[in-house]
Design brief:
Blueprint (H helix, E strand, L loop, with lengths): L2 H7 L3 H4 E2 L1 H10 L15 E6 L5 E9 L2 E8 L10 E2 L2 H4 L2
Parallel strand pairs: 1-2, 2-5
Antiparallel strand pairs: 2-3, 3-4
Length: 94
């Protein structure tokens, strides 16, 4: 599924956008790769974060070997398969 399709399905940019701080908080909760909110067996955890340049980007958080890898991608720069997990503003609320 492409980013634009994911964003539309979740109700638009305002509903999918989270902060980098929120992503970092989740990483800290699962910093050793155990079981929690993140998928941790090489599957993508996908967030949409607005950078300091005000551009919304897809952020992939992936467990690899002994740590989390975080990468940002331009929207629609790639295709996310269905094995990943998408986080949105709604999924970040208690």
């Amino acid at each position: 599924m492409f980013d634009k399709d994911i964003i539309a399905e979740l109700g638009g940019e305002a509903n999918v956008e989270v902060t980098l701080g929120e992503v970092w908080w989740l990483i800290e909760q699962q910093k050793y790769g155990g079981r929690d909110a993140f998928l941790n067996k090489g599957k993508a955890n996908i967030f949409y974060v607005r950078g300091s340049d005000r551009v919304l980007r897809a952020l992939r958080v992936l467990w690899f070997d002994s740590g989390w890898i975080v990468r940002a991608y331009e929207i629609d720069n790639g295709y996310w398969d269905e094995s990943g997990r998408v986080f949105s503003r709604n999924s970040m609320q208690p």
